[in-house]
């Protein structure tokens, strides 16, 4: 891993108040080391970790992604009950889910307009609104 990836990863972990363990630094470097936002699954991050020679277990990847989310560094995007993606971009924005390739990408936020939400149940407050637009390529 390059020195700039390690530096970015270390700074990113620091923003979340997380201690930079070897595993966290390795995964942070893969997630934000090039300065780009990305969407990953635990499995895709584990595969990237293995390819990079870091050897982080899948269980550690899952636990680390949860810690990153709890620290406010990432957000989890649930596509269906069994598939979660983790997004390093933290502003509110919609997503495209490509059903044929199981890929999650950002959708243009400036083209989305939500004019009204249902009345919230008493004793609750809005935490966030997730918008996932499912797509299928046409032939």
TrEMBL record:
InterPro entries: FUR, WH-like_DNA-bd_sf, WH_DNA-bd_sf. GO terms for biological process: negative regulation of DNA-templated transcription; regulation of secondary metabolite biosynthetic process. It is found in: Cytoplasm. One of its GO terms (molecular function) is DNA-binding transcription factor activity. Keywords: Cytoplasm, DNA-binding, Iron, Metal-binding, Repressor, Transcription, Transcription regulation, Zinc. One of its GO terms (cellular component) is cytoplasm. CDD domains: Fur_like. Signal peptide: none annotated. Belongs to the Fur family. Homodimer. This is Ferric uptake regulation protein. It comes from Szabonella alba. The lineage of its organism: Bacteria, Pseudomonadati, Pseudomonadota, Alphaproteobacteria, Rhodobacterales.
